[in-house]
Amino acid sequence: MARRKKIYEGKAKILYEGPEPGTLVQYFKDDATAFNAEKHDVIEGKGVLNNRLSEFFMSGLNAIGVPTHFIKRLNMREQLVRQVEIIPLEVVVRNTAAGSMSKRLGIDEGTPLPRPIVEFYFKDDALGDPLVTEEHIIAFGWASQQDLDDMVALALRVNDFLSGVMMAVGIKLVDFKIEIGRIWDGDFMRLVVADEISPDSCRLWDIKTGQHLDKDVFRRDLGSLTDAYTEVAKRLGVLPTNVTHATKPTLIN
């Protein structure tokens, strides 16, 4: 069997050349990182869970007309995606003050925000992914004003979808991060949601107890990350409810 060509390897995923032009195979690793990879561990089963959860969210977005790079899941750890030109920005939507916003602005964690706030961070690990303004983005040519307007609109539609899905299973969507890519069809360009949507890229709190069900469990040493992700998957119906060994999840096809 021919060895696949690796296109890119990040902290949590590997991208391989896809079977057709314009496609990639996205592989989910078990690596968990925090603080720009200063904290690192390998957590058995994490990649399997994130693959299925990202499939669930991306498929849901596609179904309601929010374009994504997701085509289909291939197996337990891989999915087929469209190749996109990633805009070098992380788009963060915040519904509740938490994490860096609380530290930066002195707002108590858990304070509801008066409206969803969209922030942009320049993707550069060496710089710590700094917060940037729309003025920076346009001045340095990372995106146009039209791109920014479309990115905000996409991010808010994702927020509406995720908030509703999570609320229905007793989970508060505190904030989340997405990446957005350009797909070209001749001279026509459109923006799509890319990368992944999973508990790695969202803050998720149990509505009743405030329990963290996201990567903060790993960042803050709050318990088992796999147990937290498994709980999210169970509530969303991605896992059967009778799972007894969370580190080796049995997934529904």
UniProtKB/TrEMBL annotation:
CDD domains: SAICAR_synt_PurC. SUPFAM superfamilies: SAICAR synthase-like (SSF56104). This is Phosphoribosylaminoimidazole-succinocarboxamide synthase. GO terms for biological process: 'de novo' IMP biosynthetic process; cobalamin biosynthetic process. The keyword ATP-binding applies. GO terms for molecular function: ATP binding; phosphoribosylaminoimidazolesuccinocarboxamide synthase activity. Its EC number is 6.3.2.6. One of its GO terms (cellular component) is cytosol. Residues 6-235 form the SAICAR synthetase/ADE2 N-terminal domain. Keywords: ATP-binding, Ligase, Nucleotide-binding, Purine biosynthesis. Pathway: Purine metabolism; IMP biosynthesis via de novo pathway; 5-amino-1-(5-phospho-D-ribosyl)imidazole-4-carboxamide from 5-amino-1-(5-phospho-D-ribosyl)imidazole-4-carboxylate: step 1/2. Belongs to the SAICAR synthetase family. It catalyses: 5-amino-1-(5-phospho-D-ribosyl)imidazole-4-carboxylate + L-aspartate + ATP = (2S)-2-[5-amino-1-(5-phospho-beta-D-ribosyl)imidazole-4-carboxamido]succinate + ADP + phosphate + 2 H(+). PANTHER family: MULTIFUNCTIONAL PROTEIN ADE2, SI:DKEY-6E2.2.
